[in-house]
UniProtKB/TrEMBL annotation:
Monomer. GO terms for molecular function: ATP binding; magnesium ion binding; shikimate kinase activity. This is Shikimate kinase. InterPro entries: P-loop_NTPase (IPR027417), Shikimate/glucono_kinase (IPR031322), Shikimate_kinase/TSH1 (IPR000623), Shikimate_kinase_CS (IPR023000). Mg(2+) binds at residue 19. Catalyzes the specific phosphorylation of the 3-hydroxyl group of shikimic acid using ATP as a cosubstrate. Belongs to the shikimate kinase family.
Amino acid sequence: MTSRSLPVALIGPMASGKSRIGRRVAAALDVPFIDTDSVVVAEHGPISGIFEREGEDFFRVLERAAVAEALEQAAVVSLGGGAVLDPRTQEDLRDATVIRLTISEESVAKRIGGSKRPLLHGDAVEAWARINTERGPLYERLAHVSFDTSTRPISEIAADIVLWLEERS
Ligand SMILES: Nc1ncnc2c1ncn2[C@@H]1O[C@H](COP(=O)(O)OP(=O)(O)OP(=O)(O)O)[C@@H](O)[C@H]1O
Ligand SMILES: O=C(O)C1=C[C@@H](O)[C@@H](O)[C@H](O)C1
Ligand SMILES: [Mg+2]
């Protein structure tokens, strides 16, 4: 893979595996890994607390700052699930290699039990499915390629992504 492919951005819905798989891909490529949710948490505390105290719009401002800085790095960047809603992020992604992770509703149900994700209160699976349907076309439009994470182990999916990146460059 050449540095022209960087940054590599992982996008997709909550619990699709962006953080876990992104970390593995970065390690395999020997480049830094940045998770924009983790950057916001490190600087401002847990995301659920930000949503409760200051609201989603304020979270999106903090998130956008983290995303803008991350996408300037030669790194693998896992974006928060809603980061792609910002038109400036959509524009920044034109200079990145964008990988979309998908997951079925059936599989996500097993991953979001006991979730603290602020947008998934109430019936978490139903809320997840609604958001995934709303954003699906946007994720698809922004991505160069999609990988489904519903059934296979994280290690195999990460290896497939690395192979795809190597073949593409
Ligand atoms: N391929 C997989 N098989 C089984 N479990 C997985 C797989 N990928 C991720 N998981 C599990 O699903 C959960 C969510 O993964 P992860 O945190 O990487 O998702 P995410 O896309 O970063 O979510 P968020 O948008 O909330 O940050 C974790 O508990 C992780 O271990
Ligand atoms: O899909 C979303 O809008 C979100 C996803 C998470 O990664 C966090 O960024 C936050 O919980 C919001
Ligand atoms: Mg994550």
